[in-house]
Design a protein that fits this description.
The complex is a heterodimer of chains A (about 325) and B (about 260).
Chain A (H helix, E strand, L loop, with lengths): L2 E5 L2 E2 L2 E2 L1 H17 L2 E8 L4 H5 L8 E6 L5 H15 L3 E4 L4 H13 L2 E6 L1 E5 L2 E8 L4 E7 L3 E5 L17 E5 L10 E8 L12 E5 L8 H12 L3 E5 L1 H5 L20 E5 L5 H7 L4 E6 L12 E4 L2 H17 L1
Parallel strand pairs in A: 1-4, 1-6, 4-5, 5-12, 6-11, 7-11, 14-15, 14-16, 16-17, 17-18
Antiparallel strand pairs in A: 2-3, 8-9, 9-10
Chain B lengths: L1 E5 L2 E3 L20 E3 L1 H16 L6 E7 L5 H9 L4 E5 L9 H15 L3 E5 L10 H9 L3 E10 L3 E8 L2 E8 L2 E5 L11 H6 L5 E4 L1 H4 L7 H4 L2 E7 L8 E4 L3 H14 L4
Parallel strand pairs in B: 1-4, 1-6, 4-5, 5-11, 6-10, 7-10
Antiparallel strand pairs in B: 2-3, 7-8, 8-9
Classes of the chains: A alpha/beta (about 325), B alpha/beta (about 260).
Bound molecules: flavin-adenine dinucleotide (FAD) and adenosine monophosphate.
């Protein structure tokens, strides 16, 4: 039976929230198409209890494959086999990094159409149509598929939700997959290394976030002072660019490969507002941006945009917020 | 060792309007440039060559694109590539990412590189996927968004940030690696290198020369049909303050925050 196959990423015994979102979305679409949603889990000895949990999100069957975790190409082998053997028409992925790599490899393997950064999927004449924002989110383009379709969601685009019959668990079927020779040529040495201090930003009401515009690691000391001036429940966050540069801990990173937050205030200093950053913070109640480039994408989705040099503005802002608090 | 670097010509980032408001279509006119993310891939190739851990015989820049894309190749050569290849053919116009990846892989196959490097994304297409597609066609291992890479004669040790933190992955050569923009600080080309770029060998080929199956490329050979461009749901534009007098700017920010009870 044609259907929709998803990839469910798991780590340390729990499924990835975006993968559960993809399973939820796939089961919703499958119902509309009159078909079923299935999932693939890949890993060393994935327990039944874990795999079958996907049933609660609407997967009727889970294909379990024994293969290395955390790398894309073994999953391409697994999903290509499952899709070919079972006739799935579509593969759906939640946002993340592996989904991009697996989806792309799968498109090549199956000569399928692939669309990434998808924010919504509709059913039209019994086929899936994917919506993708393009050109810095200034337009939306629709994708239709001639043959098999690979749909890679944007981070947080698909919300996870337990289905009505949430008690139901999926049947788990073990599949033997022979890995392609090239899939065995990459080996995970260490996975999920946390670089920098283990800061906690998820509970903060006020987040002061810094990017490459800070110019140097020390710029974060000023942002910490600004956060402190707000007092109470405030913290400092960062973009991938500065985390990769070692200026701030990974635990404070917002975005596609970092955290998703929705504080009362998100104040972004020296951040351009790339899509991969935006997806992690766009649900914030109030967004304030300080950037010297009036064309920076972040101004497209800020509530208050300040065009200017953060080096001039932030120190004075610290004093002004302190004064306000004191007064 | 031979390194091939994939490069692309994209609209200059400084060209502001990227969609024509009259037609609602992509505006492809205006200045073009080498995709800035690809300069990191060229720089990574140069650092391997200059690093001395392995012997690099040749760095080859490869692009698929219209006639004008020659300039992106000249730029790539000025940044250090020894020669370049341009796959250009009207039959390729309208190829989707899968078809583009297939076509590029077919050209690369002939070169049998030990390492293929790409940028993390193209500035216009932003697909993040060409690397993984090319790798599957070439039957090579691959990794994207790599920010640190150590090379020896038969393998790479790569670091990149994925869903749960930083991963370190060891990969046997030949391999396809797309590099993140944090991997290095690309150099500026010297005037001499810019002047000399046009004299370095540039091979142009059509899809027939490259051995590409015409039924798998172009708009007709692509499995995705894109269209129906429409405007995203409009979000009311935020308030903007141009910082002229910083004391006043800060006063206004504080008032704005205070109104919303954020202080
Ligand atoms: C697969 C993938 C996953 C990714 N995941 C993430 C992620 O999880 N999180 C994330 O953040 N990014 C992520 N990225 C990277 C993302 O695309 C951007 O590269 C990154 O967010 C840019 O960070 P930035 O805004 O700090 O730097 P830049 O884009 O370099 O922006 C710096 C800004 O500072 C401004 N500026 C400079 N000087 C000053 C000054 N003196 N005063 C005021 N403003 C100034 C500049 O005008 C510029 O707009 C990912 C990318 C990919 C491809
Ligand atoms: N037409 C092309 N020709 C050569 N290389 C390309 C082409 N399109 C994309 N690339 C390469 O693939 C990378 C990722 O692009 P994309 O997947 O479109 O975001 C770019 O940084 C380039 O290195």
């Amino acid at each position: 039976m044609p259907g929709i196959l998803t990839f469910a990423l798991h780590y340390e015994g729990a499924f990835n929230k975006n993968s559960l979102g993809a399973v939820t979305e796939a089961s919703k679409l499958a119902r509309e198409l009159g078909t079923e949603a299935h999932a693939v889990v890949v890993g060393e000895n994935v327990p039944d209890e874990l795999a079958s949990q996907l049933g609660a999100y609407g997967a009727s069957k889970v294909f379990r494959v024994q293969a290395p975790e955390g790398l894309a190409q073994p999953v391409v082998d697994a999903m290509a086999k499952v899709m070919t053997d079972n006739g799935h028409d579509y593969a759906l992925f939640g946002g993340g990094l592996l989904g991009f790599e697996i989806g792309a490899g799968l498109a090549a393997r199956l000569n399928a159409g692939v669309t990434m950064e998808v924010t919504a999927v509709d059913v039209e004449d019994g086929r899936l149509v994917a919506q993708r924002p393009i050109l810095g989110d200034s337009a939306i383009s629709e994708s239709r598929y001639r043959g098999k379709g690979i749909i890679i969601g944007r981070l947080n685009a698909f919300e996870m939700q337990q289905s009505a019959d949430a008690g139901s668990s999926a049947t788990v079927e073990d599949v033997q997959v022979e890995l392609s020779p090239w899939s065995t040529k990459a080996r995970m040495v260490t996975r999920g290394e946390q670089r920098g201090a283990d800061v906690d930003i998820e509970g903060a009401d006020i987040l002061i976030a810094g990017g490459r515009g800070l110019g140097k690691a020390e710029g974060f000391e000023t942002l910490e002072q600004l956060a402190a001036s707000f007092g109470g429940n405030s913290a400092v966050a960062a973009t991938r660019a500065v985390v990769d540069a070692g200026w701030y801990p990974y635990a404070a990173q917002i975005g596609q490969t970092g955290k998703t937050v929705a504080p009362k205030l998100y104040l972004a200093a020296g951040i351009s507002g790339a899509i991969q950053h935006k997806v992690g913070m766009q649900a914030s109640e109030n967004i304030v941006a300080i950037n010297k480039d009036s064309n920076a994408p972040i101004f497209e989705f800020s509530d208050l945009g300040v065009v200017g040099d953060l080096n001039k503005i932030v120190p004075k802002l610290i004093d002004a917020v302190k004064a306000k608090k004191g007064g | 060792m031979k390194i091939c670097v994939l490069v692309k010509e994209v609209p200059d980032a400084a060209v502001e309007k990227r969609i024509n408001p009259q037609t609602g279509r992509l505006d492809r006119s205006g200045e073009k440039n080498l995709n800035p993310y690809d300069t990191h891939a060229i720089e990574a190739a140069m650092q391997i060559k200059e690093g001395g851990a392995v012997q690099v015989d040749e760095i080859v820049a490869v692009t698929m694109g219209p006639e004008s894309a020659t300039r992106a190749l000249h730029k790539a050569v000025s940044l250090g590539a020894d020669r370049s290849i341009q796959l250009t053919d009207d039959a390729l116009a309208g190829s989707d990412v899968q078809a583009t990846g297939y076509a590029l892989a077919t050209v690369l196959q002939k070169e049998s590189p030990d390492l293929v490097l790409l940028g993390q994304q193209s500035d216009d297409g932003e697909c993040y996927t060409i690397g993984a597609i090319v790798a599957d066609h070439l039957q090579m291992p691959s990794l994207t968004q790599v920010i640190k890479m150590d090379v020896n004669d038969s393998a790479l040790r790569c670091e990149r940030q994925a869903e749960y933190g930083y991963d370190t992955v060891e990969i046997d050569l030949p391999a396809v690696i797309s590099v993140g923009d944090a991997i290095n600080e690309p150099r500026y080309p010297s005037l001499k290198a810019i002047m000399g770029a046009k004299k370095k060998p540039l091979e142009k080929m059509g899809s027939g020369d490259a051995g590409i199956d015409g039924s798998r490329v172009g708009a007709d050979g692509s499995m995705v049909q894109c269209g129906n461009f429409k405007a995203p749901p409009s979000k009311s534009a935020g308030e903007i303050i141009e910082d002229e007098d910083t004391n006043e700017t800060v006063e206004r920010i504080v008032a704005w925050l205070d109104e919303r009870k954020l202080i």
